[in-house]
Amino acid sequence: MSSVLATVICVVMLFWGNSDAQLSPTFYASTCPNVSRIVRGVVEQAARNDVRIGAKLIRMHFHDCFGCDGSILLVEANGINSEQDELPNLSVEGYGVVDDIKTDVENVCPGIVSCADILALASEILVTLAGGPAWKVPLGRRDSRTANAAGTSDIPGPDETLENLALNQRLDDANPDPTLDTAYLQKLRQACPQGGNPSRLNNLDPTTPDDFDNNYFTNLQNNRGLLHSDQTLFSTSEADTVAVVNRFR
Length: 249
Ligand SMILES: *[C@@H]1O[C@H](CO)[C@@H](O)[C@H](O)[C@H]1NC(C)=O
Ligand SMILES: *[C@@H]1O[C@H](CO)[C@@H](O)[C@H](O)[C@H]1NC(C)=O
Prior knowledge:
- It contains nine helices and no strands.
- The chain is an all-alpha fold and 249 residues long.
- It folds into two domains: 8-154, Peroxidase, domain 1 (Orthogonal Bundle), CATH 1.10.520.10; 162-248, Peroxidase, domain 2 (Orthogonal Bundle), CATH 1.10.420.10.
- The protein is globular.
């Protein structure tokens, strides 16, 4: 999956969600018993059209989960300073699929299921479609009526170091990341030359970009992490995160 870091952090978030005693996998058992089936129908169709939809929606769920309240879905309006207009939104896509799910769910159970729960359900289904594990999704999140645009600055950026939030990953000759595998770095320079098209995409996981697996961690061990904020988890030798990478691979 092209956004495995997001996935990993997202799963951590879901565990935090689990600790909330008010959430329950059977939250909609009497009010919308088919919600999971409805979400699955839309998501499976979307995955047939777009192999990246899993990465997109799991990432959206992660970005939303600095609250898990659906606030990322609120567009700019009177009194709402949309989170979508902040810098971290540039990597967030897939809003149309969420709209499609919401429409189908509303048709069957109007006014019952929160958008935050829809994102959580869609993420679990997409993880399983990409070969990952299934889990019972705790439900019962309430949607926010306000957005927290300033709060998007809490979302970690791709260029962050473990301890310093402002060190940039650079691919130019003057400042190569000293830890990156040379052949991989060479490929990246060809794929994304300086001054090239800034909207070009590159897989975060060069090995199995569309699968939910642990190659992300193997890649870090092989110095093939695309983002500095990823590679530094393994390359900062004194950091606690090295053991985490080794454990998950
Ligand atoms: C749930 O879906 C099944 C299969 O489509 C259907 O038979 C059943 O009536 C639905 N239940 C509710 C409560 O909508
Ligand atoms: C993200 O923010 C930019 C800048 O405000 C805006 O033009 C764009 O439509 C937003 N993208 C999404 C997907 O919301």
